[in-house]
Amino acid sequence: CRTSLLKGKKVIVTAGGTREPIDPVRFIGNHSSGRMGFAIAKAAAFAGADVTLVAGSNDHLKTPAGVARRIDVGSTNDMKAAVDSYYDDCDLVIKSAAVADYRSAHPAANKIKKSDETLTLTMAKNPDILYGLGQRKAHQVLIGFAAETTNLIEYGTAKLKKKNLDMLVANDVSAEGAGFQGTTNIATFLFPDGSMEKLEKMDKEDLAAVIVERAAAILAKKNQ
Ligand code: C5P
């Protein structure tokens, strides 16, 4: 049901995967369905927030009711430009998007024709959007995601620190009922004071509601 947990707060949610062009008809992408991020955008809007949903490869997903604006993006650089342009006066960023770490260094202007038995692509490192936000964090609350297949807590804790986050949602994408596809997820929340909260397997919609509750509590504490 509708609450006022985030009433008057400006929230950016990123969702889905990025697409890095190789040529005009091909891209490098990932399996992110966008469901987690769309569920978070919906939950934040229900909690009264002014939500900007920056969506990657999710053309098939309908914009949730109450979301103030949706910006569809392709590449990581496009996502960065959209997020950066709303960052300064926003209160909370929840970055659930699966961002490509590398892009084709020189996307071809025309469709690449098949010829040799092998094709070598040179990749260039993408900017880490969330790391950049963490570097210039002022009043904002930053929540990141970490999808891992091993050493979940160790890698998650390292990301929380490196990216200067207020909370990290870590999930083992190799576990049954968790991760990119599907409607459920199994998450562990990590916090900067070293505490953690392990959640049971739950619907992404329910997990989104819990994430919004924790985010609102962190915001309230910061603004005390
Ligand atoms: O890819 P990684 O595990 O480092 O992602 C952790 C968090 O950082 C996620 O919230 C993701 O959206 C964000 N990220 C980003 N820009 C990147 C890579 C990751 O904002 N280039």
Automatic annotation (TrEMBL):
Its cofactor is FMN; Mg(2+). Keywords: Decarboxylase, Flavoprotein, FMN, Ligase, Lyase, Magnesium, Metal-binding, Multifunctional enzyme. Residues 11-224 are annotated as: Phosphopantothenate--cysteine ligase. One of its GO terms (biological process) is coenzyme A biosynthetic process. It catalyses: (R)-4'-phosphopantothenate + L-cysteine + CTP = N-[(R)-4-phosphopantothenoyl]-L-cysteine + CMP + diphosphate + H(+); N-[(R)-4-phosphopantothenoyl]-L-cysteine + H(+) = (R)-4'-phosphopantetheine + CO2. GO terms for cellular component: phosphopantothenoylcysteine decarboxylase complex. Coiled coil: none annotated. CTP binds at residues 101, 111, 127-130, 145, 159, 163. One of its GO terms (molecular function) is FMN binding. Pathway: Cofactor biosynthesis; coenzyme A biosynthesis; CoA from (R)-pantothenate: step 2/5; Cofactor biosynthesis; coenzyme A biosynthesis; CoA from (R)-pantothenate: step 3/5. Binds 1 FMN per subunit. Its EC number is 4.1.1.36, 6.3.2.5. Residues 6-216 form the DNA/pantothenate metabolism flavoprotein C-terminal domain. In the N-terminal section; belongs to the HFCD (homo-oligomeric flavin containing Cys decarboxylase) superfamily. Catalyzes two steps in the biosynthesis of coenzyme A. In the first step cysteine is conjugated to 4'-phosphopantothenate to form 4-phosphopantothenoylcysteine, in the latter compound is decarboxylated to form 4'-phosphopantotheine. This is Coenzyme A biosynthesis bifunctional protein CoaBC. The gene is coaBC. The chain holds residues 181 to 404 of 404 of the full protein.
